[in-house]
Amino acid sequence: MRITLCALSVTSLVLSGAPAWGTAGSPATLAWGAAGSPATATRTVSTASALATADASAALPAPGNPAGRAYVPAEARPAGTSRPTRVVGKGTPASCTSQAVVAAVAAGGVITFSCGPRPVTIAMKATAKIRNASARVVIDGGGKVTLSGGGKRRILYMNTCDKAQGWTTSHCDDQATPQLTLQNLTFADGNSTGQRAEGGGGGAVFVRGGRVKVIGSRFVRNRCDPSGPDLGGAALRVLDQSRDLPVYVVRSTFGGAPGLGGICSNGGALSGIGVSWVVLNSVISDNKAIGRGANPARGGTAGGGSGGAIYADGNRFTVRVAGSIIKNNQAREGGGAIFFVSNDRTGTLTIDHSTLRHNPSAGFETRGYPGIFFLGAGKPKVTSSTLR
């Protein structure tokens, strides 16, 4: 069944108990493992396979949706890096170490890499943590750097309310800095499982406070806890942005092919509480929300399972998706593509010149909007887009 939505002409789909559509458009069974999680949710990585993963990272497709034509505002464009504050590496792969990355991120400023002419994967031995005294942190991989959590750890962490990273204001939940830009990077195999501070989540990147934007980057095979009613964001978890300004995600890819997507209780790619998102010219595919019991958790369950691609909850916030493709994501509960709940019904969802397809919601979704569960102001605004 294909539905093309232009100026909000829609078709119907059952709100509760919707079938799980396969990639060919026919009903299919979601591939949940015996323990209630996808068969690919956990795995053991040998030394040999880890080396193969490094090679595969270099062969990933270019980030973003090449057909996306959404306008990118000035504040969402790449940061200049011609005069970096510090450079990781001395021209060889061996000089680009986890220790060097951790030190550079802690020092802040504009960070670039010199790791030789070929793509390189840096195996992170510790999570890189941003110090809250840093006004600005730009990390630019030049399209050749993969930061890998090795399936063991979160890759990058920023939290203005974490006193261990420096207490800089009396209003840590709404401060303007640090301002973090992640561009031309690949984040692979991050895993925040067991990291429950601030609600957990953020398998590759966790951010609270300041501002963050992601440009020209890729997120593959990231993980966070498999259960929990609000826990989410296998790739990126964001809380408390300054003045409630949006998180920009521009020309980036989350997953991108079978086996590359993120897996978490909620938000197989992106997750936020009270956070606005603007997703431009990007691809979000093959991610899974694997929790069971939704939010609040049904009796006898641990909760979760919503937002195969994007999980957005809170009061007044917005989500805008433009020039983007969201496909082949799955939710065990609601919103195979997007789970959007504005508790006070003031939040808005806009989908413009985008394609959402084959995003099954095994539990529930909003009638007429395949792959979406929406509670907010009015109805989702959908223009020149395809939902099916």
Automatic annotation (TrEMBL):
Signal peptide: 1-20
Domain of life the protein comes from: Bacteria
Keyword flag Signal: yes
Keywords carried by this UniProt record: Signal
Entry protein name: Right-handed parallel beta-helix repeat-containing protein
Record organism: Sphaerisporangium corydalis
